[in-house]
Amino acid sequence: MPLRGTHGRTIGETADGLAVEAIDQTRLPHALVIARLSTLEGAARAIETMVVRGAPLVGAAAAYGMWLAARADPSDAGLARAAARLLATRPTAVNLAWAVSGARAAIAAAAPAARADAARAFARALCDADVAANAAIARHGLPS
């Protein structure tokens, strides 16, 4: 999607690798505002307040929320609290639940010191898969 003259995504990691940036959907179409999500709580609030909206974007924000949580507290208890917090943001959101479950599965086999990297890899893969799916939908919708 063209964003400030270049192709970009609605959500992704910051250049410094310390946070996530997402287009603030509540400000569209009147302004393009980029929200910085640097903590689990920031990601959860973005989901709750509809800064991020739409099933794929909510799932991506939840997956990145698990990464942010794993960076802060990679313990089993910390990740369980993070998952519960994210799931409470929109209890009926299917993509959110799927993303949290997928992140937890990706993290489960990793040693605590490697959990943040595993969570980030999952979030990146989820976002890449969403982009690929949307590109395929667009190709099929093009006139022959």
Describe the protein.
It is a single chain. The chain has five helices and five strands; from the N terminus they run βββββααααα. The mean pLDDT is 93. It has one domain (2-141): translation initiation factor eif-2b, domain 1 (Four Helix Bundle (Hemerythrin (Met), subunit A), Up-down Bundle), CATH 1.20.120. The strands form two sheets. A three-stranded antiparallel sheet has the order 3-4-5. The protein has a two-stranded antiparallel sheet with strand order 1-2. By secondary structure, the chain is mainly α. The radius of gyration is 15 Å and the shape is globular. A hairpin with a 2-residue loop joins strand 1 (2-3) and strand 2 (6-7).
What brief labels describe this structure?
5 helices; 144 residues; Four Helix Bundle (Hemerythrin (Met), subunit A); two-stranded antiparallel ribbon; 10% strand; mainly alpha; 3-stranded antiparallel sheet
Sum this structure up briefly.
Helix content is 58%, strand content 10%.
Topology of helices and strands:
Blueprint: E1 2-3, E2 6-7, E3 11-13, E4 20-23, E5 34-37, H1 40-48, H2 55-72, H3 76-89, H4 94-108, H5 115-141
Helix pairs in contact: 1-2, 1-3, 2-3, 2-4, 2-5, 3-4, 4-5
Query: Which structural category do the helix and sheet elements fall into?
Result: mainly alpha
What is the overall number of helices? 5
What is the count of β-strands? 5
CATH C-level name: Mainly Alpha
The largest sheet is: 3 strands, antiparallel
The CATH superfamily is: translation initiation factor eif-2b, domain 1
Order of helices and strands: EEEEEHHHHH
CATH architecture: Up-down Bundle
Strand order of the largest sheet: 3-4-5
Please state the CA-atom Rg, rounded to the nearest Å. 15 Å
Count of the domains? 1
Can you tell me the overall shape? globular
The residue-averaged pLDDT reads 93
Low-confidence stretches: none
Assembly state of the chains shown? single chain
| CATH topology-level fold name | Four Helix Bundle (Hemerythrin (Met), subunit A)
Beta content comes to 5-15%
- In whole angstroms, the N-to-C terminal distance is 22 Å
Helix content: 55-70%
